Amino acid sequence: MGKIDADANEVILVDNDALFKKRVMVKDFHWINGAPDMPIPVTCKIRYAHNAAPALASTCIYDDKAVILFDEPQRAVTAGQSAVIYDGDKLLGGGIIMG
User: Fold this and answer.
1) In 3D, which of 68, 65, 38, 36 has the Cα closest to residue 52?
2) How far apart are alpha carbons 20 and 8 in whole angstroms?
3) Half-sphere exposure in the Cβ direction for 29 (13 Å, CA)
4) Cα 43 to Cα 56: distance, rounded to the nearest angstrom
5) Is residue 15 exposed (0-12), middle (13-18) or buried (19+ Cβ within 10 Å)?
6) β-bridge mates for residue 87, sequence order
7) Distance of alpha carbon 39 from the chain centroid
8) pLDDT in tens, the chain (99 residues)
9) Alpha-carbon span 33 to 37, nearest angstrom
10) Which residues have CB under 8 Å from 64's CB, separation 6+?
């Protein structure tokens, strides 16, 4: 993903292919009804207007982080946005995408 270097007054651009990610780390992850057996197939939204995409979700045992592994790479996964996972229409949990 591109970035802004405010100190150098520069905007760094990247090729469109570099905007796609298949694996996403999520911090401050919270399961609504407790963590299920892992990994679990889910659909995941990475921003409000994003169509939920099929993925596998699992959490790190030692802290409140989760790993989302999409079936297909997703465009513009952005640090600071929410990642929210579902089982059909049922909300399972969510957290903040890490950079």
Assistant:
1) 68
2) 26
3) 27
4) 8
5) exposed
6) 90
7) 15
8) 567 888 999 887 777 777 889 999 999 999 999 888 889 999 999 988 889 999 999 987 667 899 999 999 999 899 999 999 999 999 999 999 997
9) 12
10) 27, 28, 29, 30, 95
Q: Which residues pair with 17 in a beta bridge?
A: none
Closest to 86 in 3D by CA, of 61, 60, 49, 51: 51
Burial class of 80 by CB neighbour count within 10 A (0 to 12, 13 to 18, 19+): exposed
Taking the model in full, what pTM does it have?
0.82
Query: What string of DSSP letters covers 71-95?
Result: EEEEET--TTSEEEEEETTEEEEEE
